[in-house]
Amino acid sequence: MATTEVSSTTSISQTFFTSLYKMADGERIRTCLQCGSCSGVCPFGYLMDFPPGRMIATLRADEFDQVLKTDSAWMCVSCLACTQICPSKIPLTVGLMTRVKEELLLSGNVPNELQFALENSQRYGNPQGESPRKRADWAVGIQPPIAILGRDRHPVDILWYVGDYPSYHPRVQFTTKALAKIFNSLGISFGILGPEENSDGDTQRLSGEHGLFEMLAEKNGRVFSKYQFSQIITSDPHAFNALKNEYPKLGISYPVKHYTQFLAERIDQLKPLLTQASQALVTYHDPCYLGRANGVFDEPRLLLESIPGLKLIEMPHHHSTSLCCGGGGGGMWLDGFQWERAHVRLSEWRVREALSSGADILAVACPYEPPRFEDAIKTVKDAGRLQVKDIAELIADSIES
Amino acid sequence: MKIVVPVKLVPDLVEELTIDPSGTALDTSWLRLIINEFDDHAIEQAILLKERSSGHVTIITLDAEEVDDMLFAAAAKGADKLIKLVGNFESVINNHALARALVPLVQDLQPDLILTGVQSHNDLDGSLGALLAEYLHMPYVGYVSGVSAEPGRAIAHKEYPGGLTAKIGINLPAVLGIQAAEQPPRYVAISKVRQMMKTAQIDEHEVSSVDSSGGARITRMYQPEVAERATMITGDANETSDKLIVIFQELGVL
Fold first, then answer.
1. Could you tell me the CATH number of the domain that includes residue A23?
2. Angle between helical axes of A12-21 and A98-106 (0-180°, round to 10)
3. In the predicted model, what is the mean pLDDT of residues B174-192?
4. Residue A222: which CATH number?
5. Do A159 and A247 lie in a common domain?
6. What is the count of structural domains for chain A?
7. Mean pLDDT of A378-385
8. Looking at beta carbons, which residues of chain A come within 8 Å of B190?
9. So what's the ipTM on this one?
């Protein structure tokens, strides 16, 4: 039972088509050339009964109900590769694919793993179902102590929006602690929200749960408005994307930067601190929501190249053609579902590419990536020599403690 | 088919439980309540029955913090009527008291079927369904994982230990203790729950007196005590695994 109302005179194809037009640039869907580039570039397009191009064809043929009978949309990792390549500039990811997921979700067709993540996000404010009270537990013992705004009640320069995986995931907490060390080394005035912080909701939005996204955004917005700060910094490109592009539509508008941008602005202050040389050959993986979605390509590379001794090389897919780690658009919570259909992981593809580049270290800048790539390293042949490090970890290692 | 689903909220185990100074109860200051998982399955089974033939589903629960959200979510899944029991409940109501409080209300509603979770993790005095059946003089089947119903008659799929399942015919009205619905509880989009918050109505039913006799009395509540024979292995992952290897070698299993 989809909520897109179907009267006796209009079909689901027509009503869905009309609902797409109403979105930003939605009318571009009329200009689809059926060139198939989207379906070809989609990392899981070959598995979908209806990759993006064919979905549009079914809309035109008045056969869209066929799409809703398949799970094609749940293979979409919202990596924006289709949107990037589309010659007609159709908003395929945020428009077509996300709307199809919404339609499936409203009709109750939600894979179980994703359902748990959405229910957890609603109840606990994080998809993992962790205790909200423990959101700042990673910060225990860090010196100087990290200000939690609800407790320490003083104005700060930087509100550090930490995010779900940086707060709770044991592997990603290393990145979080590294970033804390960098901020402290630079003498930045910063604070976190701790238990008051909720999931940014962006990946929930891109997995079709717009209502949940709004609920989480409103909660975060109310908390932001309680405190004094000049800008928000985050290590999570998904949070960055939400705060920069989606929260303002809900009237929640603050200056926001990804930490790589923030540190790149302070490169003159940061560089003298980077005294520990690295002999590593490093390749950098552009995260979808930092690179393709928001055009941040240079700052991460600038930071890496400022580490003495470090040599940066590029993989075949880089900048706007970067490969997806598989975690976006709900992929983080569809591992089992997607594995059953694909028997490959997108992260394995990336790890093989990093290996063939000859790099010792795969550098990343998104909290989804260390666990995904490290898991892939365990299953890809002879990948054991490859290390995965967030840029913040490499910078922190280069700062003498 | 009129179906009534009595639902309990229970302590959410995602938060750590602490015991209050009396030493006989949980400290409720940090306690958060969540729907009993088996009751969530009872709701799902009721909605499935309603969808298969026509029906009317009533959810009844005790008033508590966040209980409205749970009721609106049930409405978004397809429940028709929402009732919460309100009153001046001095202490935690046990299942005997809850069953007695439900009896007059359930009798008024005249359901064909009463579905409730077969158990909950804070049951101290037996399961609610069995007590309710006793007080209502209705038949009861517990550990049910599937139901088909027609007027006056239902077939309950009951799970037994050892991987056995029985189909049990039962005359209606009856009470069923649900172990699992035929499919996992469904997801309802937040937009639908929010819609229900605007349109659905929660009826309040006053409970004037509470009779908890027959239930268990807690004399002491405490955290599990560390047994002397347990050895706690400390250290980081590498140290811990080294120590484990030594222990396994000493035991001759490696």
1. 1.10.1060.10
2. 130
3. 96
4. 3.40.50.1860
5. yes
6. 3
7. 95
8. 122, 209, 211-212, 214-215
9. 0.89
> Residue A91's domain spans which residues?
12-106
Element containing residue A7 per DSSP (H, E): none
Asked whether the beta carbons of residue B34 and residue A211 sit closer than 8 angstroms, the reply is no
Strand order in the sheet with A190-192: A147-148, A190-192, A158-161, A231-234, A256-258
Nearest residue of chain B to residue A133 (CA atoms): B15
Q: How far is A157 from chain B (nearest CA, A)?
A: 32
Residue A6 lies in a domain: no
Cα nearest neighbour of A122 on chain B: B190
Same domain? For A275 and A193 the reply is no
Asked if A133 reaches chain B (Cβ–Cβ under 8 Å), the answer is yes
**Could you report the per-residue pLDDT of A13-40, keeping only the tens digit for each?**
888 888 888 888 999 999 999 999 999 9
For B189, which of A124, A133, A211 is closest by C-beta distance? A211
What DSSP letter does each residue of A198-235 carry, written as one string? Answer: ----HHHHHTT-HHHHHHHHHHHHHHHTTS--SEEEES
Interface membership of A209 toward B (CB under 8 Å): yes
Q: Which of A106, A132, A162 corresponds to the end of one domain?
A: A106
- What is the model's pLDDT at position B230? 78
The residue of chain A with its CA nearest to that of B184 is A112
How many angstroms from the chain centroid is the CA of residue A101?
17
pLDDT tens for A141-172 read 999 999 999 998 899 999 999 999 999 999 99
| Same-domain status, A81 and A47 | yes
Predicted TM-score of the model (pTM): 0.92
Quote the percentage of chain B above a pLDDT of 90: 80
Asked whether the beta carbons of A322 and A349 are under 8 A apart, the reply is: no
Query: Under an 8 A CB cutoff, do A106 and B190 touch?
Result: no
Q: Given CB atoms, is B31 within the 8 Å cutoff of chain A?
A: no
CATH code: domain of residue B95: 3.40.50.620
Look at the block and give the residue holding tokens 């540190």.
A263
pLDDT value, residue A1: 39
pLDDT tens for residues A53-108? 999 999 999 999 999 999 999 999 999 999 999 999 999 999 999 999 999 999 88
Determine, yes or no, domain membership for B49. Answer: yes
Q: Does A252 touch chain B (CB under 8 A)?
A: no
Residue A309 to residue A274: CA distance in whole angstroms: 11
Rounded CA separation B116/B7 (Å): 7
Nearest CA to CA, how far is B15 from chain A (Å)? 6
> How many domains is chain B built from?
1
B236 CB burial (10 A radius; 0-12, 13-18, 19+): exposed
Shared domain check, A290 and A310: yes
* Own/partner long-range contacts of A264-270 (Cβ < 8 Å, ≥24 apart): A264/A298, A264/A299, A264/A302, A264/A303, A266/A186, A267/A302, A267/A303, A267/A306, A269/A186, A270/A182, A270/A186, A270/A303, A270/A306, A270/A395
Residue where a domain stops, chosen among A47, A78, A106: A106
